[in-house]
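Problem 12. The chain below contains 305 residues. Write out its predicted structure in token notation.
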Amino acid sequence: MAHVLGQNQYGKAENRIVRVHREANRHHLKDLNVSVSLRGAFEDVHLTGSNANCLPTDSTKNTVYAFAKRHGIESAEGFAMLLARHFVENTERGVVHSARIRIEEYSWDRIPARSARPGESGDVGHSFVRSGQEVRTTEVEYDGERFRVVSGLKDLVVMNTTDSEFWGFIKDRYTTLPEAYDRILATQVTARWAFGFAGRDAGEAAPDWNHSYREVRRHLLEAFAQTYSYSLQQTLHAMGTRVLDHRPEVDEVRLELPNKHHFLVDLEPFGLKNENEVYFAADRMYGLIEGTVHREGVAPVIPVS
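Solution.
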């Protein structure tokens, strides 16, 4: 039987890069993990061993660092778009048909300390502490004609200590879960959102990526806090809908919400009444709630993991 080479791609994964922009006595920091993946005319590389159409993965790594120097890093999305366009449009012989750039961005906060340098006033401008907040993500694909930009975040841990219920569910012979009318609702949010921006014509302006990220994050958090929840599924829908209602540049939101269960501890053996005050936080196992909310008429593009 004949064998056929199917879908294939290659690149350099997890290029760790820290870019410092030095502005007088005040520095600005970007901390990224960049992964490059290329698709194109790579059949001979697999079938004959010829590397004539192979751009080394080491070259893609070097490009990431060189572009950080040449162009700076204003936003993860903008940096990814520069890289993707370069690999498709500038690789020799046009062998790269499409490029996908995935980026994780790690947050650093300034340390609020006064400068101790002689003759220098104001806060220290060069000291940072790694933030324990979420990781910002983006994925950019470019095929020579249009971009597909999917941004997001992960590891955003949130909790409501009330305004959450779960009751009226199906009960079968294996159901032991009691109905809850006042419970803790906690989750670790993974969110991805797709933009309508495609960059197909010169008149199409790209969004302000950093502002858009801050606003999407804000609406996700506000929806979580302000929704009286009868299920985590209902909260998921409220979060996605809030983003689409307030951010016109976003066409689709996909959320993965593990239900971080908190169970009331039985204190009766100790003669104590537990009035929704003392809980056991279970990290395994957990319910996993996933879903996509998108605008009517928009075909979803965010893959289901």
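Discussion. Residues 268 and 274 are 8 Å apart (CA to CA). Students who got a different answer should revisit the alignment rule from Section 12.3.
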